[in-house]
Amino acid sequence: MENYQSSSQPVVTKPARPVFLTVLCILTFIGSGWAIVSGISSYLTADTTADIVQAAMEDAKDKIDDAGGGSSKMAEKMISGASEMVKPENLKKSALFSIIAAICTLGGAIFMFTLKKAGYWLYILGTAISIAGPLYIFGGNLISMLSTVLIGIVGVIFVILYGLNLKYLR
User: Fold this and answer.
1) Which helix (H) or strand (E) segment is 12 a member of?
2) pLDDT band at 130 (very low <50, low <70, confident <90, very high)
3) Nearest to 86 by CA among 130, 56, 126
4) How many other C-beta atoms lie within 10 A of the C-beta of residue 56?
5) pTM recorded for the entire structure
6) Predicted pLDDT of residue 89
7) Which listed site, 36, 37, 43, 68, has its alpha carbon 20 to 30 Å from 27?
8) How far is CA 110 from its chain centroid?
9) Is 138 exposed, middle or buried (0-12, 13-18, 19+ CB in 10 A)?
10) Residues with Cβ within 8 Å of residue 84, at least 6 apart in sequence
11) Virtual CA dihedral for 147, 149, 151, 154, nearest 10 degrees?
């Protein structure tokens, strides 16, 4: 018996995944995995974290009051905004949004790693949740806006980079 393939049978090959797409997916696996672990940890330690931060903010407010000066109004605004953010229920909500967003982006990366276009849309959903979550929970205070902008910049960059690879997804 000869060990060759007949030329009448088509050879089925899987499309090659570009190296750039592979690197993006691996970075997302790492980042999303870390975000899931971090979100779980944040959820479980929300009460302790809130107590520690509240005590530190009260101490800072006392020092600002003792020092006086013209910048105390701005500092008081920031402290009041931050105190709203570090309530245990808000920290837990934020952690849950973070976990959900990370699961979506991880799932999207897994799909894109297997060259499925649905992963791109799932990744966009996860990015949208990571941007909208803090705004929904914390409102439009300065600290939440800054963190949302930073999260959004990274998320949008990855969405664009994944978008450059859409032609390889089916």
Assistant:
1) none
2) very high
3) 56
4) 12
5) 0.81
6) 94
7) 43
8) 16
9) buried
10) 90, 138, 139, 141
11) -150
Residues in the chain: 170
User: What average pLDDT does this structure show over 113-127?
Assistant: 98
Following CA atoms 90, 95, 101, 106 in sequence, which dihedral angle do they give, to the nearest 10 degrees?
180
Cα separation, 106 vs 76, whole angstroms: 39
DSSP code, position 9 = S
- pLDDT of 69: 55
For residue range 46-98, what is the model confidence (pLDDT) as tens digits? 999 989 988 888 887 777 777 665 556 766 667 666 777 788 999 999 999 99
**Per the structure block, which two tokens stand in for 10?**
């088509």
Q: Where do we find the tokens 């499925």?
A: 116
Rg over CA atoms, the chain: 23
Q: Tell me, what's the pLDDT at 11?
A: 67
Q: Domain ranges for the chain, please list them.
A: 19-168
Which tokens in the block code for residue 101?
Answer: 């967003």
Confidence of residue 8 (pLDDT cuts 50, 70, 90): low
